[in-house]
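call fold(seq) -> tokens
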Amino acid sequence: MEIALLIEKGILILILTAITLGIATYLTYGERKVAALMQDRIGPDRAGPFGIFQPLADAGKMFFKEEIIPTHSERWLFILGPAIAMVTACITSAVIPWGTSLEVFGRTVELQVADVDIGVLYIMGIVSMGVYGIMIGGWASNNKYSLFSAIRASAQMISYELSMGLALLAVILLSETLSLKDIVAQQHGDFGMGWNIFYQPIGFLIFFICSLAECNRAPFDMAEAESELIGGYHTEYSSMKLGFYLFAEYINMFISSALMAAVYLGGYNFPGMDLLHNHPTILGLLQIGVMFTKVSIFIFIFMWIRWTLPRFRYDQLMSLGWKSLIPLALLNLIITAAVSLWLG
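ret:
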């Protein structure tokens, strides 16, 4: 039985990893198409019909380009930086529930790699480790622009993690659990519409803004400000090491969207799902579809914002984090605690 469970989890991990990497690859295509839509252009249209093979061509280019390691860099740390960024981005998805379960060959397969009772802490811990990949890569490059970018990125991510954590604390206070599976399951009420966004709209807004900053997305892309820092912390990188950094950014965007969908938009819950409790396979597939639809909406909003809003100045970015979001998140947490105690 244990061997069967290990095989089941191993297959689930492989499928989830393949889907994550595939989505990250094609998010580059989606980004270009959304940018083209915003700017009244066509976008990629030469590699296959509608340019659908453009991401595969880009991946091939990354694999076969010459790999250059600067002479004056710290060689092993230079290699370690993108590896940390990629690994931390990929393993974050382990605790996210993509549905309840599926019936496969007579076995009930849980649509979650690991249901740990501290899932929220696990995600925050892994996200905090992601900054080491950026910091190590920027420092090991022995390039002043890369170092400036790494310092900016680390300060930005540490600052906005505080607001993100405080926003999550309010949800934890309401749910009384750190398990993502339980948080999603508790949003099943009100005919599948008992979503936390209705109880925590301010917390959701704070979390969404912090997600933009954590992913270094515009208007918070100060770490990669081309007009100031050339290419940011990956200026000296080439070949697939550069690809790892770029892929890690898109994977982080995908995982951030999945986390927001799970915590605030009910995850896989949708109206009328109770009517399908006698058809577990259909229900499981619909839940996966609903979850990925919510994730896709968030990803589109991420891209929409990038191609709509201008970049902040760095002092404005830090001021927003420390002087606006943290006090607002604390106020939201205090109000949530007071209301919970009053209704308790």
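The radius of gyration is 21 Å.
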